[in-house]
Design a protein that fits this description.
This protein is of the alpha/beta class. The chain is built from twelve helices and six strands. A hairpin with a 2-residue loop joins strand 2 and strand 3 (264-265). Helix 3 packs antiparallel against helix 4 (141-167), helix 4 (141-167) runs antiparallel to helix 9 and helix 6 packs across helix 9 (289-344). The chain is elongated, with a radius of gyration of 27 Å.
């Protein structure tokens, strides 16, 4: 894992081999069991959820950097400054639209999905009760009818879960694969071309930009060290932005990161950070004024390109979740159809095997899939002015001095105008 990613500890997946109860049901019905359908899809479902949570936090961190940053102070405006500001404003507008449209839907969809967790558990409870009745009396027509109704309900709930997940795919794809990449590419192009008619120190510009990226990764790595895990992310993950150094009288914001989780906050006083901050300032001073301007504009373009890449990765994660749940839904429907078919056979009376399978299914659902259904991730934001060199106590004080709000509100609170500064 790269330092630019926030670490999320994966949940241990229960072994997917057949248990004695699932094997008994498979042997007695000759078909796929419900518990086996769950077990053989569990790894894919949980892996895709982990990737999804990882990508949500990555996007939120980069969005914090994008919105906290502005067009830089420039010594000399380029000839196509209007093109730069137009592309910048469009890219910023699209980033804000992603937050208000896609991220907002991202928050709503898990709520739709999660409420079916208890429903499925209750349906399995009733199915187990009916199977118990059929063990006592295989000819109990009411219990047989009720069990089949429970299986039908179970199938419909799995279908609805997948429908809710699929419902948010289009918006993710449009923004993640088209809108944000196109806007970022346009901004990057005009930013890179702004001073193409000038003599630039390309080697030093590359070194300067590399140092900015190194600082970004080092700060992000510190976010990993504050003990983040899926439970903390789901409840109290706070995003913020970190200033690296004063360059040309203007603060360079070099990283958007998770600055707090639960009761732990990030510390920015590592010796290496201080040294790299000093090196960044030195590299900036070594650039001539035109190269400083070119490097600053290119950095803006790079920031938006990283956001586009992160949102694209998140879109891919959503696709992966949908694929995993579609496979699970298909296997569950096959198992349900097989069980219904077996119970229709007048010679079938092994309801003990059915009962065992339903109990194993319920246990497996509660142990593994209860977490898988919960896709909700509650990210917040705080506008605290954080800078390299601050101790964890200073960071904590800065956070407490500012309001911590939901992520959508946090992003919308940033000025949305041009915010251009030039000599």
């Amino acid at each position: 894992m790269s330092a630019s990613q926030t670490s999320i500890e994966p949940k241990t997946v229960v072994a997917t081999e057949e248990t004695s109860s699932t094997r008994a049901t498979t042997e007695n019905t000759g078909k796929l069991s419900l518990a086996l359908a769950l077990s053989r899809n569990s790894a894919a479902v949980l892996d895709t959820q982990g990737a999804y949570q990882q990508d949500v936090t990555n996007v939120c961190a980069q969005m914090s950097l994008v919105m906290a940053s502005t067009l830089p102070y420039l010594n000399t405006l380029p000839a196509d400054w209007d093109a730069v500001t137009t592309a910048y404003q469009q890219a910023r507008k699209d980033a804000l639209a992603w937050t208000n449209q896609v991220y907002a839907q991202l928050q709503e969809t898990p709520e739709d999905v999660e409420r079916y967790n208890d429903v499925i558990s209750k349906v399995l409870d009733d199915a187990i009760t009916q199977a118990q009745a059929l063990i006592t009396n295989p000819n109990d027509s009411f219990a047989n009818m009720s069990l089949k109704a429970d299986l039908k309900t179970l199938s419909s709930k799995f279908s609805l879960i997948n429908t809710f997940i699929i419902s948010c795919q289009d918006a993710f794809k449009e923004f993640g694969y088209t809108i944000l990449p196109d806007a970022a590419a346009q901004l990057s192009t005009v930013a890179n071309d702004a001073y193409q008619d000038q003599k630039l120190d390309e080697a030093k510009i590359a070194e300067y930009k590399k140092q900015i990226e190194a600082l970004n990764q080092e700060i992000t790595a510190l976010a990993v060290e504050i003990g983040l895990n899926s439970a903390a992310i789901a409840t109290e993950a706070t995003m913020g932005a970190v200033t690296a150094a004063e360059t040309g009288g203007i603060s360079l914001i070099c990283a958007g990161v998770m600055i707090a989780a639960s009761a732990t906050v990030i510390a920015l006083d590592a010796i290496k950070l201080e040294k790299d901050k000093a090196q960044l300032t030195t590299l900036h001073a070594e650039l001539d004024s035109t190269s400083q301007d070119a490097a600053s504009l290119q950095n803006v373009g790079d920031t938006y390109k990283k956001l586009a890449a992160d949102t694209g990765a998140l879109s891919t994660s959503v696709d992966g979740i949908s694929t995993a749940w579609t496979a699970l839904e298909s296997d569950m429907n096959t198992a349900i159809a097989d069980l219904n078919s077996a119970m229709t056979d007048a010679a079938f009376n092994d309801y003990q095997a059915v009962y065992n399978d339903l109990v194993a299914t319920q246990n497996y659902w509660n142990d593994v899939y209860g977490d898988a259904v919960s896709l909700e991730i509650n990210v917040q934001g705080n506008p605290a002015a954080l800078a390299i060199g601050m101790t964890s106590d200073q960071v904590d004080a800065a956070i407490n001095a500012n309001p911590t709000v939901d992520f959508v509100t946090y992003i919308n609170n940033f000025p949305q105008g041009s915010a251009t500064v030039a000599a």
